[in-house]
UniProtKB/TrEMBL annotation:
<feature type="repeat" description="PPR">
    <location>
        <begin position="647"/>
        <end position="681"/>
    </location>
</feature>
<dbReference type="GO" id="GO:0008270">
    <property type="term" value="F:zinc ion binding"/>
</dbReference>
<dbReference type="Pfam" id="PF20430">
    <property type="entry name" value="Eplus_motif"/>
</dbReference>
<dbReference type="InterPro" id="IPR046960">
    <property type="entry name" value="PPR_At4g14850-like_plant"/>
</dbReference>
<dbReference type="InterPro" id="IPR046848">
    <property type="entry name" value="E_motif"/>
</dbReference>
<dbReference type="GO" id="GO:0003723">
    <property type="term" value="F:RNA binding"/>
</dbReference>
<dbReference type="Pfam" id="PF20431">
    <property type="entry name" value="E_motif"/>
</dbReference>
<dbReference type="Pfam" id="PF01535">
    <property type="entry name" value="PPR"/>
</dbReference>
<dbReference type="InterPro" id="IPR046849">
    <property type="entry name" value="E2_motif"/>
</dbReference>
<protein>
    <recommendedName>
        <fullName>DYW domain-containing protein</fullName>
    </recommendedName>
</protein>
<dbReference type="InterPro" id="IPR032867">
    <property type="entry name" value="DYW_dom"/>
</dbReference>
<dbReference type="Pfam" id="PF14432">
    <property type="entry name" value="DYW_deaminase"/>
</dbReference>
<comment type="similarity">
    <text>Belongs to the PPR family. PCMP-H subfamily.</text>
</comment>
<feature type="repeat" description="PPR">
    <location>
        <begin position="682"/>
        <end position="712"/>
    </location>
</feature>
<feature type="repeat" description="PPR">
    <location>
        <begin position="345"/>
        <end position="379"/>
    </location>
</feature>
<dbReference type="GO" id="GO:0009451">
    <property type="term" value="P:RNA modification"/>
</dbReference>
<keyword id="KW-0677">Repeat</keyword>
């Protein structure tokens, strides 16, 4: 290096003059000429440096240089003592000033000695670059200089550099001492380099230092870090006659590092039996071993031992007890220790705060922070992280923003951990713009930072932003782990982008990152993208399927309309013997509801009760939905009433259940009860309420609740709300008003909205709005077969057969086919499915014969005449009658009537609930609009009649 040591010391680089831990103005050092020649007495300065602060040491040194009397110490010793004090206090700036004076002085006797002290000081202060420069410029080096430089590398977290310097030292033939081996063994432990560590151990034995307690301690720590605990134990037992507290601490620490907490506590017991008095460090370690919930009682016993030994006054021990009790869930005991402490440091408050957060006491954590500030304790970095975590988990955005402001004022906002926690806070509070702002201001982003921000956007459904950030991370050469892949796949599912999902899948296969969690995730993603075939293939490839695997595949089937397959898969799951959890059971309940498989639903409900699952939260909501879909409204109400803590989802589910069964008034009454409970309705609640009003003909009430949602609750309507409102007005023949609502929408109306309007136009034969709705519908969603079928039916109902033919040709040109109508009924604990004019059932001949008998009875004794106006085909009248006779609903009911008179059947057929008991047929049709003898409100709830009555078949023509 070209620059001389003297020039470097006099003109230290500005980049090395970082902020000091020492908040005092360093007195200028002036060396008198007399100080260069007088011999010295060192006692006074040594005592000052040992007992006083660095400020006092500098003041004493300066006054000796500038005083009238010659200084009473040798200059080399004076510099050495002050440099040691700078190292102890980690005051880099003051150490650099001493370095400058040493370089200027011509009276320094032992340059090697002081250079070694400088290397030691810079290493302790963390200035590795300065230490290297001083070390490199030393013309000769003692073993102490080598040790100081190796120790500096180890302390700074550069173990590889420490080992490299050790090899150079061996090449130069520098004799080794115990401190050399201690530092090198520590470096091997940090690198988990068992091979080199064993070589150093052998060398220590060869040099006669193998039994040195100082080295044995480091060797045991190294073996523990290298997962060779058995070697550490053997080494410990070999030191039978020389076991001191430090050695016992080492083996206890080795057990704890290996996660063997019970063994660590056993060794601690042996230490007490051997009559040794534990040190502060011993208690800190064994308390750390008791941080498991199951070892709380042992922790209390150690607490008693600490009280007897009077170590409880030590701040480190008290802090460890606080952490132990908070991890064991005993927050009250931790608080008692905190308030009983004579002296507290920043770790005390931070440990208490993190304990509150760990135990879910988020509001208490925020209150405790206020108490700390009132007591004059300022939150440190750890406290800020805990407070931000508490704010995030409690959803307290305002408090989180206050802590963010404090972090900005304190300069903690650039801290990586604080930044990551802020990102998590704003993610949980759905403030993605704030989250991005914090992310951009973090100067050096680590991998966790990228994972957190990508996951935050994925959780807030910002799917495109997720992909943008992922590309940025790739450009920054960041790695990819399974958590990040999970967020990317979530974005793929949200965007329904199966091509990107396939790319990620290929990437994972090439990198051999596949595991059970990712396999399950891919089942979810492919299911979310609508590719059930891919999802099923991946599910079959999973060798050791977990309950999550089965649940993911069941949900995939349910969400894509494969309810029968979902139910079959659930039955296969039961045969595997895997323990079912509440999530698996809830995942199959929608399939039960879709199929109206009441007996299966009751079985699952019974299983939930037998397994001790409390019908609360999502379980209760799923049961309410299931029973309502299966037509048993009374059971839905029982589940609702038996649930103690009713959340918003459960109230919404019950409102929806009433609406599903045409009980609009009851749904409104329940909504008012919910408001009395001070629950604030959300978008979904109002959607269920509008649905109930729509299916009960409550036009005025529906308008009122729509306005209340916008004006009173400040909820911007979703497209689904507009769809419900249009359907409500359309059913009541307020088509002009419905059309005006669609026209006044701030956003583009969706296909569902136009579909609702078109359906109403069909019922009320409104050609004007019907043609507008039909044209809009086919433009917005030209690939949906059901849209063409609906337009086809509108034209057919008005006899526009040329337009009907054109619609058929367009469907044929696009290769679109309408899925045939399907009806199912549960008989004998089995679901039977039928489509129009179906002949696939094993008892098909019997079904059609039974249906013929019923039609004959209805025509002969009930005067039944087929209502062929609902057959929208340009065919002969006789052919229309045949078509009506082959409806899937009729086939399902005819099959149910094949049973013995003792059979009792409750099931769904289309949108109707069918109950058969003996010779009584009960049909419940909540959406029925046109009947022979309508009630006052124009709606029929129950039709109760013997089989001979024509109503039972007649109504099914109009579903």
């Amino acid at each position: 290096m070209a620059t001389s040591a003297q020039h470097f010391a006099v003109n230290p680089p500005s980049t090395l003059l970082g902020p000091s831990n020492c908040n005092f103005k360093t007195p200028s050092l002036q060396i008198s000429k007399n100080s260069l020649i007088k011999p010295i007495k060192t006692r006074s300065l040594k005592e000052i440096c040992r007992e006083e602060s660095l400020e006092e040491g500098f003041r004493s040194l300066s006054s000796s240089f500038t005083g009238q009397n010659p200084p009473q110490f040798r200059l080399d010793d004076a510099y050495s003592l002050v440099l040691e004090l700078c190292a102890r206090e980690k005051c880099l700036k003051q150490g650099q000033q001493i370095h400058t004076h040493i370089a200027k002085s011509n009276a320094v006797g032992d340059r090697v000695f002081l250079s070694t002290k400088l290397v030691f000081m810079y290493g302790k202060c963390g200035s590795l670059l300065n230490a290297e420069k001083v070390f490199d410029r030393m013309s000769e080096r003692s073993v102490f200089a080598w040790n100081a430089m190796i120790g500096a590398y180890v302390a700074k977290g550069e173990p590889f550099e420490a080992l490299e310097l050790y090899r150079v030292m061996r090449v130069y033939g520098v004799p080794l001492d115990a401190h050399t081996l201690f530092c090198v063994v520590k470096a091997c432990g940090k690198l988990k380099n068992l091979c080199n560590g064993s070589e150093i151990h052998a060398l220590a034995i060869k040099l006669g230092l193998g039994d040195h307690v100082f080295i044995a301690n480091s060797l045991m720590g190294m073996y523990a870090k290298c997962d060779a605990l058995d070697v550490a134990i053997r080494l410990f037992h070999r030191m039978s006659g020389r076991k001191n507290v430090v050695l016992w601490n080492s083996i206890i620490s080795a057990y704890i590092a290996s996660g063997q907490f019970i063994e660590a506590l056993r060794i601690f017991g042996e230490m007490l039996e051997a009559g040794l008095s534990p040190s502060t460090y011993t208690f800190v370690m064994v308390l750390q071993a008791c941080e498991d919930m199951s070892l709380g009682k042992v922790g209390m016993e150690i607490h008693a031992t600490i009280l007897k030994s009077n170590h409880h006054r030590h701040v480190y021990v008290a802090n460890s007890m606080i952490v132990m009790y908070t991890r064991c869930g005993k927050i009250g005991e931790a608080l008692r220790i905190f308030y009983a402490m004579d002296e507290r440091d920043s770790i005390s408050g931070s440990s208490m705060l993190s304990g509150f957060v760990r135990n879910g006491l988020y509001n208490e954590a925020l209150e405790f922070c206020q108490e700390m500030q009132e007591a004059g304790l300022k939150p440190d970095q750890g406290s800020v992280v805990s407070l931000l975590a508490a704010s995030a988990r409690s959803g307290n955005l305002m408090c989180g923003m206050e802590i963010h402001a404090y972090a900005l004022k304190s300069g903690l906002d650039t801290d990586l951990q604080v930044g990551n926690t802020l990102i998590d806070l704003y993610s949980k509070c759905s403030k993605t713009n704030y989250m991005d702002s914090v992310f951009q201001k973090i100067p050096k982003k680590d991998f966790i930072c990228w994972i957190t921000v990508i996951a935050g956007h994925a959780q807030n459904n910002c799917h495109l932003r997720v992909l943008e950030l992922f590309r940025e991370a790739q450009l920054e050469k960041e790695g990819v782990d399974k958590l990040m892949i999970g967020s990317i796949l979530s974005a793929c599912s949200g965007l329904k982008c199966i091509s990107l999902a396939k790319e990620i899948h290929g990437y994972i296969l090439r990198r051999q990152l596949s595991d059970l969690v990712l396999h399950n995730t891919f089942v979810d993603v492919y299911g979310g993208c609508g590719n059930v075939h891919y999802a099923s293939r991946i599910f079959k490839l999973i060798e050791a399927k977990s309950i999550v695997s089965w649940t993911s595949m069941i949900s995939c089937y349910v969400n894509n309309g494969f309810s029968n397959e979902a139910l079959d898969l659930f039955l296969s799951l039961k045969e595997t013997g895997i323990d079912l959890d509440s999530i698996a059971l809830m995942s199959v309940l929608p399939a039960v509801a879709n199929l109206s498989a009441l007996w299966k639903g009751k079985e699952i409900h019974g299983f939930l009760i037998r397994k001790g699952f409390i019908p609360e939260g999502s379980i209760a909501s799923s049961l309410v939905d299931m029973y309502a879909s299966c037509g048993i409204l009374d059971n839905s109400l029982r589940v609702f009433n038996c649930t103690r803590d009713k959340d918003l989802v459960l109230w919404t589910s019950m409102i929806n259940a009433y609406g599903m069964h045409g009980h609009g008034k009851a749904a409104i009454d329940l909504f008012k009860q919910m408001e009395d409970e001070n629950l604030v309705p959300d978008h979904v609640t109002f959607l269920a309420l509008l649905y109930a009003c729509s299916h009960s003909g409550l036009v005025d009430e529906g308008r009122k609740f729509y306005e209340a949602m916008k004006n009173e609750y400040q909820l911007e309507p979703w497209p689904e709300h507009y769809t419900c409102l249009v359907d409500l007005l359309g059913r009541a023949n307020h088509l002009e008003e419905a059309f005006q609502i669609v026209e006044r929408m701030h956003t583009e109306p969706t296909a569902e909205i136009w579909r609702a309007l078109l359906g109403a136009c069909r019922v009320h034969s409104n050609k004007k709005f019907g043609e507008i709705a039909a044209r809009k519908l086919l433009v917005l969603d030209p690939e949906s077969p059901r849209n063409y079928v609906l337009v086809y039916n509108v034209f057919a109902a008005t006899g526009r057969w040329d337009d009907v033919a054109e619609i058929r040709m367009r469907m044929k040109g696009k290769q679109l086919k309408k899925d045939p109508a399907c009806s199912w009924i549960e008989v004998g604990n089995k679901v039977h499915t039928f489509i129009a004019r179906d002949r696939s059932h094993p008892q098909s001949d019997e079904i059609y014969e039974k249906l013929r008998e019923i039609i004959e009875i209805l025509e002969r004794e009930g005067g039944y005449v087929a209502q062929t106006k609902f057959v929208l085909h340009d065919v002969e009248e006789k052919e229309k009658v045949k078509m009506l006779h082959g409806h899937s609903e009729r086939l399902a009911i005819a099959y149910a009537l094949l049973g013995t008179p003792e059979d009792s059947i409750v099931s769904r057929v289309g949108s109707a609930l069918v109950e058969i008991s003996g010779d009584i047929l009960k049909i419940h049709i909540p959406e029925f609009r046109v009947i022979t003898e309508p009630k006052a409100d124009g709606y029929s709830n129950y039709l109760l009649c013997p089989i001979k009555c024509c109503r039972s078949i007649c109504v099914l023509e109009e579903l």
